Amino acid sequence: MPVAHLPINHALLLASVLFVLGLLGVLVRRNVIFILVCIEIMLNAAGVAFVAAGSRWQQADGQIMFILILTLAAAEVAVGLALILQFYHRFRSLDADAASDMEG
Amino acid sequence: MNATFYVASTVAVLATLLVITRTQAVHALLYLVVSLLAVALVFYTLGAPFAAALEAIIYAGAIVVLFVFVVMVLNVGGDAARRERAWLAPGAWVGPGVLCAVLLAELLYILYAGTPGTTGLHPVASQQVGAALFGPYVLAVELASMLLLAALVGAHHLGRREHLER
Fold it and tell me: What pLDDT score was predicted for residue B114?
């Protein structure tokens, strides 16, 4: 084993910090674009955890899960941005509170 | 050599913190690019070069370009030119520039002095990833393709013009 072995805890700590920052952004911001960006940050943090675990056990599975998360993120951002365009055309605003009451 | 990991993760956390505190969407997207590039460098130091390349190409490239495109589409007002001038002020790009310079210095250091697994971890080669992806995980690949198709159809449906006149 090499001397300077990176503890897996530190990589998982990075993933948790990034995830909490994204969650904080979703909870605090009211601009729908920022909410979508913060969801991307959270998905990316989950990917960091998978890649860290995969490199800890020297298996390719972690990177494969990261690729699947990447696919999910791409699909989610395409639909989310189309929804944001609809939202802006309907409410003339990017404030999530503008759509707080459902009119059915 | 663990310092490369810690520097890149510090940059990632700082840039993410700045993303969620910006008021201008374009400034936040600049910091988001820096954050994603820093995470790509973290992947590289963790011994996952294929994941690092995908992170840089798809996240920092394609997904952020989609965000920038939508922000630009939503800003077609009379004050668009004034905002454009404000975005080019040095205050807007000095922060991301400094963080990117740190990442570039680290990348050059790694390229000059190290191997992919600079943290003592053996890198998982992209050949291994590809073999597993189209071996035991081939069903997941098919499901991902269906997910992408569904997203394509959904985005097309939501983006139609006559839909929003209703």
Answer: 66
Q: Does A81 lie at the interface with B, CB-CB under 8 angstroms?
A: yes
Chain A residues in contact with B35 (beta carbon < 8 A)? 41
What number is the average pLDDT over the span B87-109?
84
Residue of chain B minimizing CA distance to A28: B20
Residue type, B52: A
Phi, psi torsion values for A31, nearest 5 degrees: -80, 125
Alpha helix ranges (H) inside chain B: 2-21, 25-45, 49-54, 64-73, 80-87, 90-113, 126-133, 138-158
B33 Cβ partners below 8 Å, 6+ apart?
B60, B64, B96
pLDDT digits (tens, 9 = 90+) for B47-61: 898 999 999 999 999
Tokens 């920092």 correspond to what residue? B60
Q: Which distant-in-sequence residues (6+ apart) come within 8 Å of B100 by Cβ? A: B34, B37
ipTM of the complex: 0.90
Instruction: Give Cβ neighbours of residue A33 (< 8 Å, ≥ 6 apart).
Output: A84, A94, B25, B67, B70, B71
**Residue A24, pLDDT above cutoff 60:** yes
Pick B147's closest partner by Cβ from A38, A72, A83.
Answer: A72
Let me know: does B41 contact B52? Beta carbons within 8 Å. Answer: yes
